[in-house]
Design goal:
- 21% of the residues lie in helices and 23% in strands.
- It has helices at 4-9, 12-19, 115-127, and strands spanning 29-30, 41-42, 60-63, 72-75, 87-90, 93-96, 99-102, 105-108, 111-112.
- The chain is built from 3 helices and 9 strands.
- The chain folds into 2 domains: 11-64, no CATH class; 81-129, no CATH class.
């Protein structure tokens, strides 16, 4: 563990990287960069609140997920890109509020949409926030 003096000298990037450093706590985090509040994870980059994840990028609030890119609020997802609030996806791209899907694109609640329909609905949902 670093001393108070060492912490006070660190810049934002150093603090973020150190937060994922395995000597900060007893949980395993290895090779995590620019991550916040990630635990038991390996090879994460720009992730927040990820637990038991491996090789994920630009993602938030993942649990037990591997090889995900730009995913948010997903559990047990593998090799997925740009998925939102989903569970048990494998090889999916741009699927939201889905569960138990394999190799699907542009689905909402497991309903297949066209790319245009999907993008329009997601934009509509984002405006509601």
């Amino acid at each position: 563990m670093k001393t108070k003096e060492e912490i006070l000298k660190m810049n934002k990037k150093e603090l973020r990287n150190y937060k994922c450093d395995e000597d900060l706590d007893e949980e395993l985090n290895f090779n995590c960069f620019n991550c916040i509040d990630c635990l038991n994870s390996i090879d994460l980059f720009d992730c927040d609140d990820c637990i038991n994840c491996r090789n994920c990028r630009d993602s938030t609030n993942l649990f037990n997920s591997i090889d995900c890119f730009d995913c948010d609020d997903c559990i047990d997802c593998f090799e997925c890109d740009e998925c939102i609030d989903s569970f048990d996806l494998f090889g999916c791209r741009e699927c939201s509020y889905c569960r138990n899907l394999k190799h699907k694109n542009y689905c909402i609640c497991n309903v297949q949409l066209t790319k245009d329909e999907y993008e329009k609905k997601i934009k509509e949902l984002e405006e509601q926030k």
